[in-house]
Design brief:
Layout (H helix, E strand, L loop, with lengths): L1 E2 L9 H15 L5 E4 L3 H11 L6 E2 L1 H8 L10 H11 L16 H14 L14 H18 L4 H10 L8 E3 L1
Parallel strand pairs: 1-4, 2-3, 2-4
Helix pairs in contact: 3-7
Length: 176
C-alpha cells in the first residue's frame, strides 16, 4: 500500500501521518515502513513521534541513494565539479544561485541543467539563463559524458536510478 500526502506547511500533513502511522504500525513491520520528508530532520522527528525505527527514513534523495545502492564516491560534489569545470574551461565558483555570492556562468549552467532535467525542459530557450546557449549546450553534453565516464551521479540521477529499482518490494508502507 502506498500513500502520499502533499500540502504546504501548516496544513496538517504531520498530524495526519502520525494518525495513519499509529494505525499501520499495528498492521505492518515498523522496519519495513519508509518515511520521506523535505528535510532529514523533519523525517526523523516524524519517525520518532510515530515510533518507526526503519533505516528508510530521510529525504527523497537519501532514500533514493539507499535504494539505488549508490556509494559516496559516486556522488558529484563541489570538488568534483570544480575539476570538471576547470577541465572544460567554464568559470565556476561552486556557489548556489540562491545565495547572495559571486556567481559565474558555470554556476548558472549547472543550476539550469538541474532545473531542466527535473522539469523535463528540452527547449533551452525557455531556461532564461545568462551566457550563450551554445556554451550551455556544450556544458550539458560534456557534463553527461564526464559523469558516465567516471561513474558519477548527481541528485537527478539518484532519483532516476532509484525509479529503475524495485523499491516498493523493500517497504510495506511509504509516507511522503
Amino acid at each position: 500500500l502506498r500513500q502520499v500526502i502533499y500540502g504546504p506547511p501548516g496544513t496538517g500533513k504531520s498530524t495526519e501521518i502520525i494518525k495513519r502511522a499509529e494505525f499501520y504500525t499495528e498492521k505492518y513491520d515498523k522496519d519495513k515502513i519508509a518515511l520521506c520528508s523535505y528535510t532529514k530532520a523533519a523525517a526523523q522527528v516524524l519517525a520518532k513521534r510515530c515510533g518507526i525505527k526503519s533505516k528508510y527514513i530521510g529525504t527523497l534523495h537519501s532514500l533514493a541513494y539507499k535504494v539505488a545502492n549508490i556509494i559516496r564516491e559516486q556522488v558529484v560534489d563541489n570538488t568534483k565539479l570544480r575539476a570538471f569545470f576547470n577541465e572544460i574551461g567554464i568559470p565556476f565558483s561552486g556557489n548556489s544561485v540562491n545565495e547572495d555570492k559571486v556567481l559565474f556562468d558555470g554556476d548558472y549552467y549547472l543550476s539550469m541543467h538541474y532545473k531542466a532535467v527535473a522539469q523535463c525542459i528540452k527547449d533551452i530557450d525557455k531556461l532564461n539563463m545568462p551566457g550563450s546557449s551554445a556554451e550551455y549546450k556544450y556544458f550539458t553534453e560534456a557534463y553527461s559524458i564526464w559523469k558516465n565516464a567516471n561513474g558519477y551521479v548527481d541528485y537527478n540521477d539518484m532519483l532516476q536510478l532509484a525509479l529503475q529499482q524495485e523499491p516498493l518490494d523493500v517497504y510495506d508502507m511509504i509516507y511522503l
